[in-house]
Amino acid sequence: MAQNLAQKILSSHLVAGELEPGTEIGVRIDQTLTQDATGTMAYLQFEALGVDRVKTELSVSYVDHNMLQSDFRNADDHRFLQSVAAKYGIYFSRPGNGVCHQVHLERFARPGKTLLGSDSHTPTAGGLGMIAMGAGGLDVAVAMAGGAFYLPCPRIVGVKLTGSLPDWVSAKDVILALLRRLTVKGGVGKIMEYFGPGVKALDIPSRATITNMGAELGATTSIFPADSVSSRFLEAQERPQDFVGIAADPEAAYDEVIELDLGSLEPLVAQPHMPDKVVPVTELKGQKIDQVCVGSCTNSSFRDMHMLAALLKGKHIADNVNLTVSPGSKQVLAMMAEDGSLYDIVTAGARVLEAACGPCIGMGQAPPSGAVSVRTFNRNFEGRSGTRDAQVYLASPEVAAACALAGEFSDPRSLGDYPVIEYPDRYLVDDSGIIKPPPPGTEVEILRGPNIVPLQLKEPLQEDVRGKVLLKVGDDITTDHIMPAGTRVLPYRSNIPKISEFVYEGVDAEFASRAQAEGGGFIVGGENYGQGSSREHAGLAPSFLGIKAKIVKSYARIHRANLINFGIIPLMLADPRDYETLEQGNELVIPDVRNQLKSGEKVLVKDLTNGNNIECKHDLSDREVEIVLAGGKLNFARQEMAG
Ligand code: MIC
Ligand code: SF4
Predict the structure, then answer these.
(1) Cα 568 from Cα 583, distance rounded (Å)
(2) Is the predicted pLDDT of residue 642 greater than 80, yes or no?
(3) pTM over 0.85
């Protein structure tokens, strides 16, 4: 039978279930990646699984998030990660080598393979024809130990691209156009598979920008075929042997098809505070700007940096603007230094930062109060920049450059001729920033500083679950709301008791202390609860605070999985109207919860405050029920591995 590309890769990696949308499948994972902010916890969990070496074809540990070493904490984490990598057979991409997704695309991504990463933008590697998915650190730890990755089988959406991009319009505008059309919920439970005549006109960095920001659609992943463009890219990266041509069969069907004419697009901008609040840049023309940031795993490639350099060359940014530039990798930065484009950027007045996530995750460069910041990043959630009242807009490097020069929103089409970016026949390949693990059996000591706090295992789920509604929130709550990042909080990613103090801090500063005083309880939420990052700390820290169940209208995939992994019951309201009756402070009980979860999808929750019986439901597979009953996946996986 004719298969689409996603079906081809999934079926060749399927170890459990069938490719029936909505049912649970288990997929064999060829490669894993972690980054430092999620990696420390993932490796503590990997250690707890008791395996002596990773079982994947390739596992890489990147350091790119916690790069401001304002005290020993982040540096302790980096050292721990390096020693763990050496011990367990993992490649270590050292700080300075670049942002995980950019480096992985350059050096390791392989068409036809599967990749699981403890970062939600892992689908970036889908630009090279992989099934690359984001997950919580614990799921990645299990995959490193040779376990399958379980997920609800996604529906496959064929995105038919026709035409070609007009001058001054680039990949960011493609994904912003899709976000405008489909919203941040539009991709939930789906794989976005690009096909059609428009594909061949998109180079690999452009495809990777589009698959990267598929995460903002809520998609499980996004994928492009591997064709002659992919082959040329791999050749230029001195990896021709990694190429395999792979695409959908000509007769293949999709669960849904949407069409996008690339030729119809124009420069777009996402407005505060959601990536789907998209308008043409022309609508904002003339509004003043305070900051412009170019970089992040979405737009920091050789192509994007050279576009920026070409537009800034011989000019200077406006006096009212601060421009920061974060190249995606050491490769990109080194090539910019070699060919002089770095000179064009520096002399234009930019502040060049290291090859890392930087301002994208609030690691420095927070804008001034109430400032307008235009960023080539992928997320503009409220407060993520480090400044609560900053207004963050998302745009392409072309729009960012035009804005930086003008000091106000400006249409890049006013800049004259569109530069032609020449791609190198050979990228500058220097893997000295990637430390290979020593051979198996080599004695390696794991270096733990005081910032690495040992893991605590949870108790199995009780018979009855009771407590108060500790917080009620609305739709589209992001993991940045639940577990903020930034310079203050990120250094505690390997210290759960401490990081738990920051849960929901920006929404309700009293939340963590209230949860602790009450000995835990419930959280009530709306649609698409937990969208955004893969950070498992958004499950782990609330679990530490004693949160027993969440009752919402619907969940984002990775956060739902993280809740299960840490023994929090992800309930949904059978009738969304009950949301209105569940007030903060109401006392709830789920009687006989273990049996209720096992015996079907309905779960009765009693509201003791107003006497209501609230019908909830769960969509847990039998396996997931067992995980929740065991008190989380670590307990479950340890039992499983013990046989
Ligand atoms: C993000 O962009 O939000 C992050 C920081 O990369 C997260 C991972 C994390 O919180 O460490 C993600 O996207 O998964
Ligand atoms: Fe880093 Fe930002 Fe990409 Fe997350 S989205 S991996 S913080 S660059």
Answers:
(1) 20
(2) no
(3) yes
